[in-house]
Specification:
single chain, six-stranded antiparallel beta sheet
């Protein structure tokens, strides 16, 4: 099957930055957060929704993941099944996304390849479950995630301008960025600003090919 261009503004570097902010906020409010591995940036939610960014080298990237409600494809071959072919005639390095899903025992709904200039996907006739605004792949999605985390942990509703500044800072965020977003009435519950900054710093090192 042919490859089709994907209409997504975020580059792999943008997504790395979004994931750094997501990890920082989660760490600061005491929620389990993703940490970079030597080969991938892996993000999950409790409902089995997940996304991973892999860097196969030479400026390329893979975006893989699964949405528990909307992914109608299944490309990992989980439990020994053949699954849906999400690679097709794409370059061989795309199979790293399938291998990543298998290694985590996860269903694979979408697999996009970045060739250094834009994203591509295999021409599939069914919904692969990827909506950038449902995953930490756009500023809008990240704002919603931060708002939800603050609400779930009984913090004040985050100031919009402060959230925008935090997202723009990415992995270079400072304690001041986090304090401006995460605060609570009377100082409780406590927010671990240092843990949040440390979590973001982990994303300064590039993922290895």
């Amino acid at each position: 099957m042919a490859l089709l261009p994907v209409a997504m503004d975020a580059t792999p570097d943008d997504i790395t930055s979004f994931l750094a902010v997501d990890a920082a906020v989660r760490a600061a409010v005491g929620v389990d957060h993703h940490r970079p591995s030597p080969t991938a940036l892996h993000w999950t939610r409790g409902d089995e929704m997940w996304m991973a960014l892999l860097r196969p080298g030479d400026g390329r990237a893979l975006l893989a993941g699964w949405h528990h409600e909307f992914s109608l494809t299944e490309g990992s071959g989980r439990d020994g099944e053949s699954g849906t072919d999400l690679v097709g005639d794409a370059p061989g390095w795309w199979r790293r996304g399938v291998e990543h899903a298998r290694a985590h025992g996860s269903y694979l709904g979408f697999l996009y390849g970045w060739d250094g200039a834009r994203w591509w996907r295999l021409d599939q006739p069914v919904d692969d479950g990827f909506d950038p605004d449902l995953f930490p792949a756009t500023p809008l999605a990240l704002r919603d995630i931060i708002d939800e985390l603050a609400d779930d942990t009984l913090l004040d509703a985050p100031d919009t301008a402060a959230v925008d500044a935090l997202i723009a800072a990415g992995a270079e965020l400072t304690p001041e960025h986090l304090r401006a977003v995460l605060h609570a009435p009377d100082g409780w519950p406590e927010v671990d600003i240092a843990a949040g900054v440390a979590a973001a710093r982990d994303f300064r090192s590039p993922v290895l090919a």
